[in-house]
Design goal:
Neuraminidase; signal; Phytase-like_dom
Length: about 300
């Protein structure tokens, strides 16, 4: 799932992007407060690619790239520091046709709310399904030709929802290293592709969220051949996507980070929780990493 340019070429492209002014010269706005490993049970556990945190920060919903939807309770200290995860329920994804989905047929990548409906994007199918209940039978969300025509295994990788019910869908690839990522927007039942996010080679988006501060946060990852680098940028969103800010500079200790949620804790602080996809490999881990953000509200 990575492009074929050599590491030197990718480094040169990144330098060019920096010189071109694509990257804001700002300090990070994220301070790490905890990181824990989630050791789930059974061979089915792993590959978690999408994440939603409950409004109070005490629970989560995660989905795997083999079609498993998991709910869990989060254990925290009095100051909110993460200490553990206790799984509550598992549900296999059901297709709109009522079929139980397994393995690559259910390559789920991201989660988002649309009102009370849970949206799940499926990368290999270039599809979005809407569930009224966890474990229920969904309906297929009609998507535009721009999504159905996305290249194989590089479909909608990230989704986010605005308070008014608007849904944003971002594919994994833009089609060229110097081309911005398109942002497909579903608003009042109509799709458009008027928005875009500037690309910073070699990073590719893996998750997105609209924070309580109204900004669009985008988690991005690069596979170096030896490991993963992860960064987070945020943007103001309106008629256009502007005002890029550096939230988290590239870091290499979060494994294959693929899911993210931005939420406000009981103390009023913005928090960013990120989950990693272990690819079902014993050398990788399912990590939950959490930051406090000092972004202005």
């Amino acid at each position: 799932m990575r492009h074929g340019a050599c590491e030197l070429s990718r480094s040169l492209l990144l330098v060019m992007a920096l010189l071109g002014g694509c990257v804001a010269a700002q300090a990070d706005t994220a301070q790490r407060v905890s990181q824990i490993e989630w050791n789930g049970q059974g061979a089915e556990f792993g590959g978690l690619s999408g994440l939603l945190i409950g409004p109070d920060g005490q629970s989560l919903i995660a989905v795997s790239d083999k079609g498993l939807l998991i709910t869990a309770a989060l254990q925290r200290d009095a100051d909110g520091t993460l200490r553990g995860v206790v799984e509550q329920e598992r549900h296999r994804l059901i297709s709109p046709a009522g079929q139980v989905m397994f393995d690559k047929d259910a390559d789920a990548e991201s989660l988002a709310w649309q009102g009370d409906r849970l949206l799940i994007s499926l990368e290999r199918r270039n599809a979005i399904w809407a569930y009224d209940a966890l474990g229920g039978t969904p309906v297929e969300v009609p998507v535009p030709q721009g999504i159905t025509a996305l290249q194989f295994n590089s479909g909608v990788e990230a989704m986010a929802n605005l308070p008014d019910g608007t849904v944003l869908a971002i594919p994994e690839r833009s089609g060229a290293l110097d081309r911005p990522f398109p942002v497909f927007r579903l608003r009042d039942g109509v799709w458009d592709s008027d928005l875009q996010i500037p690309r910073e080679p070699p990073y590719l988006p893996t998750a997105a969220d609209i924070g309580p501060d109204g900004r669009l946060y985008v988690l991005e990852r690069d596979f170096t051949g030896l490991g993963f680098r992860v960064q987070v940028r945020s943007f103001a969103i309106g008629d256009q996507i502007t005002d890029m800010q550096r939230v988290l500079s590239p870091t290499t200790d979060m494994d294959n980070a693929e899911g993210m949620d931005i939420w406000r804790d009981p103390a009023g602080q913005l928090r960013m929780t990120i989950i990693s996809d272990d690819n079902f490999l014993f050398l990788q881990r399912t990590l939950l990493t959490e930051y406090v953000l000092n972004a202005a509200d």
